[in-house]
Design goal:
The structure holds 3 protein chains of 3 kinds. Chain A is of the alpha/beta class. Chain A is built from 12 helices and 15 strands. The radius of gyration of chain A is 25 Å and the shape is globular. Chain C is α+β, with helices and mostly antiparallel strands. Classes of the chains: A alpha/beta, B alpha/beta, C alpha+beta.
Chain lengths: 432, 463, 125
């Protein structure tokens, strides 16, 4: 013993503890396991590494990744990550704590979740937000389930085909095993009818273009259904909020709120809704109350909706949230404030339009969505050899021009990207 | 811990800012009027020092594994090694976009493949999907796999799943989300699944059974061999809820017991931090028979909670083949040590050897006398907070009315356990003398017991 | 000791029924409310919904529990006690004065399967 830093037991400890238990050997603690199930072989695992070996191992692995300048969006955005976001979220009182069921010693977690919920409500214009769920796509699936639960009899759900493909795939997966009928349509309003429980539309389509949702809420509500809007919360500093569009539910991916790309996760799914749907909102919710001495404090509330109480009758099986990522986004939004977030959008949009103009000027692309406005992300139809283009970009250190399902290419610019970087990207295209 | 009563919205001044952004170098058209936000955006207007101080103050009202002992049953709150954090935050990984071409993320993919291989070896299964972001998410994906297995056989009648009455609440909830009807199998007086009760439940409509082994009472389901045979013979599959995998680490492999599908909680068994409720990671592993369907449940957008997976892999590499064999046994040793040291003060409904956790059913002497009610499990939990320990899991499993579920994990030393035992004995004495000390606890925390009824009746959920 | 009112009919799932012609007035018993503790929310059905005997028509919630309400008779829901939306505590205060729904019965013979006050007293002993 004593060779592994995380096992504190000495030989003497083990002897004394076994004696208290009244057995003579550690093996005796497994006397209830049938012999046939005890693993007797040698585990085919690597030999134990020391800390410095582990560090070196990952360093080596990391070097096998090509570090690229990211000019692609599609649901994961390379916004700047302020240093204090990782600084605060690394504090072990936050990092190593459990779900705040014991509110008396979890006021830190509970308060930042309350702040997070408040900020999501302010961004989306909704009345209530949950404490987050896994990611944007799974949040979209939960929003659809929520609309289904709100209507006892209607069984049809309509998803706009304009949502990002990874959102569509997760929604399809969730719905496949339910008794709901999922319809994926370009014209969602044409699908309305007496059996439709809800409709989910994106505010920004998969090609980066801003959608005009004027009149959607009225038509959807007139047909007796609910409306959910999938949005990028970062852009809500400048774009109409889901509430302003008349939506009942706002849902989306919070990664754009200063979370690192991290090869896809952990990210931050959010769901917020109008107060009449509060009881159907899945996941944790933090509420304000007072303690026995009248002090303001915060607790997990409305738990009777959740799986640990309702079991199979719960709206959702979710049992956790992306708590630390909520903290990350909350710190980010606090730092940015209303003006900073607007500026992030302005700088991203300026960079994106600069790149757009210069790419069009190369004559190697065509814009098939010409009259549709965009912010940081756009797609173009290639008039050149795509494989050659992508290879030249990769060789030049750029991840850009991701090919989408319709054959068009995706570009995305954030405030992180300098003029020099964009010019260099364009140069690579020009030199093709 | 000291009480700090501010919200970020109560700090700052109009016009103050905490951001630092580059200069503009181009122009862009304004957002068209009909698409532009009209409502003012009320976010905090604070400086960077305001933000740092505020969240540092909040952190000081929080208890974590780094603060003290967390005997939280079924949650496996083991120490979170710091090297895990360092490697997961490495800039050679954090800047990777999830849609980058494979040839540019060879290191990232090698990590996933390495983790897959080691987890397969540890569990005795073939391969894993890493898309699930938490245990419940893994259950959902796992049950989808169970359905796919039957659908591929045109066996459409299997729409029910058997769940023991001692199961985690997520099991029935996940089954319901996956469109499966729940059939409950009872536990016997000894806390194990009643095989006789199970037999008549099996048949052509049963997709499978979800089991936790050891179960939520910390008891090893010793008849698992017979159960596996019965379920398989009837055409069903066995699902292993990995929440309680820790005592089997390095000792027993679920695949060898006959399980076909399993999820692991990397944030439990493989030491990644809980982060105040997440992010976790709930990879799902399958046996050969289910392997053809492993790609089907696309339950999250990209590759799952990637950086969490890195932390777990770092831990596994440090455990290695030498140390893994001690992980489960030491966790089991710690649990039995506490159990044996406290069973004269706390009711122990099932006295057998436990695995990583066990359940007390309240105090032997709760101090009730005349009109004074005795101390409950809730009161014991709250009093523990006063003594600097986290509370155990309480009122679960549902089989005992005063359930108090304790899981120490292998990373706690004998001294820590002895301190905890001494405090639990002191609490038992306090209850016997004056249960009101417990009933009004905690006394030394930043806030005392909250008014949860008002919180639920009149929800205030935003500032 | 939980209060039981003579003359009402009771279900094994702790609902009471007061018969008023073709209409069944339905609430929960004192035993049910005391088992739940402080009720924080009453999930109510919609008026005009059809319901069958033993189907759930809503739920009671407390901080740590949720309990389904099962309809003791079949028929159409003709009234819902909307006061409970904002004041769920009324059920704790007087579970017999604060009915939850009224159902116009489609089959009055179903009442025969319900318990008398004395029989109900036996099962909650």
């Amino acid at each position: 013993m004593g060779t592994f830093a995380y096992f504190p037991h000495t030989e003497e400890d083990i002897r004394a503890m076994l004696k208290r238990i009244g057995v003579s050997d550690l093996e005796d603690l497994y006397s209830d396991v049938p012999n046939a199930f005890k693993y007797k072989g040698e585990y085919e695992l690597p030999e134990a590494m020391s800390e410095q070996e582990v560090r070196g191992y990952f360093e080596n692995l990391g070097r096998k990744n090509v570090q690229l300048k990211v000019f692609v969006g599609q649901g994961a955005y390379d916004h700047y990550v302020p240093s204090i976001a990782s600084y605060i979220t690394s504090r072990s009182e936050f990092l190593t704590s459990y779900t705040p069921y014991q509110s008396e010693i979890s006021q830190g977690t509970l308060r930042y979740i309350f702040e997070y919920q408040s900020m999501i409500c302010r961004l989306t214009g909704m009345d209530v937000s949950n404490a987050s769920i896994y990611d944007g796509p799974s949040a979209a699936a939960e929003a659809l389930r929520m609309m289904l639960a709100s209507s006892r009899k209607r069984k049809k759900l309509v998803l706009s085909s304009a949502v990002l493909p990874h959102v569509r795939e997760v929604v399809k997966t969730y719905m496949k095993y339910s008794d709901a009928e999922l319809v994926i349509a370009e014209d969602v309003l044409a699908e309305l009818g007496p059996d439709v429980a809800g409709v989910l539309v994106p505010q920004i389509c998969k090609h980066g273009r801003l959608k005009d949702l004027d009149g959607y809420a009225e038509k959807i509500h007139d047909a007796g259904a609910l409306m959910a809007v999938y949005c990028d919360p970062s852009t809500l500093a400048v774009l109409k909020s889901p509430a302003e569009w008349g939506a009942d539910i706002a849902v989306g991916e919070g990664q754009s709120l200063g979370l690192p790309l991290n090869y896809g996760g952990p990210y931050l799914g959010f769901i917020a809704c109008k107060k009449e749907h509060l009881r159907k909102l899945p996941g944790r919710i933090v509420g304000q109350t007072t303690d026995a001495n009248g002090k303001r404090c915060f607790v997990l509330t409305l738990q009777a909706r959740e799986q640990h109480i309702r079991r199979e009758r719960a709206t959702s099986n979710i049992c956790s949230n992306q708590s630390l990522m909520c903290l990350w986004a909350t710190v980010y939004l606090s730092l940015m404030g209303p003006e900073g977030l607007k500026k992030v959008n302005r700088l991203s949009s300026e960079g994106a339009h600069y790149l757009y103009d210069r790419l069009i000027a190369t004559g190697k692309f065509e814009d098939t969505h010409k009259d549709k406005p965009f912010l940081k992300e756009f797609t173009l139809k290639p008039l050149c050899d795509v494989a050659k283009l992508q290879k030249a970009l990769l060789d030049g250190g750029y991840f850009a021009a991701l090919r989408l399902e319709n054959g068009e290419l995706n570009f995305c610019v954030t405030e992180k990207h300098s003029k020099a970087e964009i010019d260099e990207l364009v140069k690579i295209v020009e030199d093709l | 811990m000291k009480y700090y009563d501010k919200l970020i919205f109560e700090l700052g001044r109009k016009g103050r800012s905490g951001y630092s952004l580059p200069k503009s170098f181009a122009s862009a058209p304004a957002v068209p009027e009909n698409l532009a936000r009209k409502t003012p955006l009320e976010l905090p207007e604070v400086s960077e020092p305001d933000v740092v101080r505020h969240y540092t103050n909040l952190s000081q009202m929080n208890f974590g594994v780094d603060t003290g002992f967390y005997p939280l049953g079924s949650c496996t709150m083991k120490y979170n090694p710091k090297i895990n954090e360092e490697v997961a935050n490495h800039p050679l990984f954090t800047g990777l976009h999830p849609l980058q071409p494979r040839e540019t993320v060879k290191g990232a993919i090698e990590m996933i493949e390495g983790l897959d291989k080691t987890l397969a070896e540890i569990t005795g299964l073939k391969h894993f999907t890493f898309l699930p972001c938490a245990g419940a998410h893994g259950e959902l994906a796992g049950l989808m796999l169970m359905r796919e297995y039957h659908l591929a056989r045109n066996d459409f009648a299997r729409t029910k799943v058997i769940v023991p009455d001692s199961a985690h609440g997520t099991n029935p909830a996940s089954a319901a989300v996956c469109g499966l009807e729940i059939v409950e199998v009872k536990s016997r007086a000894d806390g194990l699944v009643d095989v006789e009760d199970l037999k008549p439940l099996l048949g052509a409509e049963i997709a499978g059974i979800m089991m936790t082994n050891p179960n939520t009472l910390g008891l090893f389901e010793r008849e698992i061999g017979e159960i596996a045979k019965l379920v398989h013979d009837s055409g069903g599959l066995l699902y292993y809820d990995g929440a309680n995998m820790n005592p089997l680490l390095g000792k027993v492999r679920p695949g060898d017991m006959g399980f076909d599908i399993l999820h692991l909680n990397l944030h439990k068994t493989f030491s990644t931090p809980h982060g105040g409720g997440g992010p976790g990671s709930g990879p799902v592993g399958v046996a050969e028979s289910v392997l053809p369907y492993l790609h089907i449940p696309v339950v999250s957008g990209f590759h799952g909670n990637y950086s969490v997976m890195m932390k777990a892999y770092a831990y596994i590499l440090m455990l290695g083949r030498e140390n893994i064999k001690m992980a489960g046994p030491l966790a089991t040793l710690n649990a039995n040590y506490i159990k044996e040291s406290l069973k004269d003060c706390y009711k122990l409904p099932i006295p057998s050897i436990c695995k990583h956790e066990f359940v007390f059913d309240g105090l032997i002497n709760d101090g009730a006398h005349d009109d004074v009610p005795g101390a409950t499990t809730l009161d014991i939990a709250k009093r523990l907070l006063d003594y600097g320990f986290h509370a155990p899991t309480i009122y679960f499993p549902l089989l005992f009315s005063q359930a108090l579920m304790i899981e120490p994990t292998e990373t706690e030393s004998k001294e820590t356990l002895d301190e905890f035992i001494a405090v639990m004995r002191k609490i038992a004495e306090e209850a016997a003398e004056d249960p009101n000390i417990l009933r009004s606890a905690p006394h030394n925390t930043p806030v005392s017991r909250p008014d949860e009824t008002t919180a639920a009746r009149n929800p205030i959920v935003k500032a | 000791m939980s209060k039981i009112i003579e003359g009402l009919l009771y279900s094994e799932s702790h609902e009471w029924v007061k018969v008023d012609g073709k209409v069944a007035i339905i609430g929960v018993t004192d035993f049910a409310q005391s088992e739940m503790g402080d009720i924080t929310y009453v999930d109510l059905p919609s008026k005009d919904d059809d319901i069958t005997k033993d189907e759930d028509f809503g739920a009671l919630e407390s901080v740590k529990a949720s309990s389904e309400l099962l309809c003791p008779v079949s028929g159409t829901i003709v009234a819902v006690n909307e006061k409970l939306e904002d004041a769920p505590e009324l059920i704790n205060e007087d579970p017999y004065a604060n009915w939850i729904i009224k159902v116009e019965m489609s089959d009055a013979s179903e009442l025969n399967s319900l318990l008398t006050a004395a029989a109900y007293a036996e099962i909650i002993k």
